[in-house]
Amino acid sequence: MERVDCVVIGAGVVGIAIARALSLAGREVLLLDSENAFGTQTSARNSEVLHAGLSYAPGSLKARMCRRGRDAIYEYAVERGIGHKRVGKLIVATSESEVDGLHKYMKLAQANDVNDLQMLDAKGVRALEPEVQAVAGLFSPSTGIVDSHGLMLSYLGDAEAAGANLVLNSPVAGGKATDNGIELDIGGAEPIRLLARTVINSAGLYAHEVARAIEGMPKELVPEVYYAIGHYYTLQSRSPFTHLVYPVTREAALRVHVTLDLGGQCKFGPDIDWRSEVDYTFDASNAPRFYEGIRRFWPGLRDGTLQPGYTGIRPRLAGPESLHNAGTDFVIQGEQSHGVRGLVNLFGIESPGLTSSLAIGEFLAGMVA
Question: Rounded to whole angstroms, how far apart are CA atoms 332 and 363?
Answer without folding.
Answer: 10
